[in-house]
Amino acid sequence: MEAVKKMFKNNIRQYAMIIALVLIMAFFQVATGGILLVPMNVTNLILQNGYVFILAIGMTLAILTGGNIDLSVGSLCALIGAVSGTLIITMKMNVGLAILIALLLSAIIGIWQGFWIAYIRIPAFIVTLAGMLLFRGLTITMLKGLTLAPFPESFQNISSGFVLDIFGGFGTNLNFTAILTGIIISILYVVLQLKKRAKQQKNDFPLSPLPLFITQIVGIVAVINLFFFWLAAYKGIPIALIFIGVLILVYSIFTTNTVSGRYLYAMGGNEKAAKLSGINTNKVLFFAYVNMAVLSAVAGMMFASRINSASPQAGLNFELDAIAACFIGGASAYGGVGTVMGAIIGALVMGVLNNGMSILGVGSDMQMSIKGIVLLAAVAFDVISKNKSKS
Q1: Domains held by the chain: number
Q2: Domain final position from 207, 237, 267
Q3: Using one digit for the tens of pLDDT, what is the confidence trace for 19-65?
Q4: 108 FRET partner, CA 20 to 30 A, in 15, 270, 354, 355?
Q5: Same-domain status, 223 and 337
Q6: Are residues 286 and 357 in the same domain?
Q7: Which InterPro entries does this UniProt record tie to the protein (predicted)?
Q8: Each residue of 347-382: pLDDT tens digit?
């Protein structure tokens, strides 16, 4: 029992947000009469918040460097959407080539902002605030205040396409490709967890109690298979979910299992100490903002694909959604603390709140107020718990 308490205390942010997400989902499931977790709504929940998941991943890396944020991501999403719309709809360019050009443009923008932030050391807040205004102005100029539509089907499939069922459903309405995918992911998860525990045991690291370890594995495997069953009961696996899943996997491995990823945590924990230990903190900060710009382009194209248009009003408040997701998911306002999965959990909390309140007919003004309270509570929890650990 003491080991369980210690484990919970050491991972209090992560567990608290998971518990909060479960409670919020349970509340809205009851309040909406079971509509929240209807398979179609579960799929829509993922697709509607796809851009938040992607932006939250990039924002996590920026926040890790010392509590830095990027205010320009929403405007950059709109600009990339406008560029994509101009190239694909107006100029009839090949979709693949247009996407490549958009990504290259976003990388150049990231280099521009990263230079001022990392090497000139202008505060990130100021540089990205300037970027927010600049990119929004360029978007309106490029689109002349009008909306470009529609995109070709190949571009729309980024957010509205689904993976075909190679099994044909076996005469049922279920997508067996989705079910099999859930089973495969579950097996991989169990194998990785067993390997991780064996490695910890070999190196004499403290282990969680075996009953708790088994309970955790069973619980997560159940959630994975339930999630993919929901997908199977609607249309299967959305193509957008594959993009998001790959990004989550790649960035989770990068931040936890690579030297470069650990540099982000070291810089956020104590930049002076990181410098003295030989870390090029300028390069770390520069990378975080170039990466943020490229992920903003991915999110911008996904959003443009979903609404099937390039709009001068796209991307409004996207930066706030991403920042809120990171802090709700356990990232520290001071930097050095936070995970990619935590940010995804935070984005899910925001998404479930939005979706649940919309189903209940709660007005947009009240929705904003509630989300503001949730964000403040999450950051207050972070600050209070950090102060208690110091004392």
Answers
A1: 2
A2: 237
A3: 888 888 999 999 999 999 999 999 999 999 999 999 999 999 999 99
A4: 270
A5: no
A6: yes
A7: ABC_transp_permease
A8: 999 999 989 999 998 888 888 888 888 888 877 877
In a domain, 339, yes or no: yes
Residue 377 tokens read as 């509570």
The answer to whether residues 267 and 309 belong to one domain is: yes
The verdict on residue 128 lying in a domain is yes
pTM score, whole prediction = 0.92
Domain of residue 281 covers 29-161+238-380
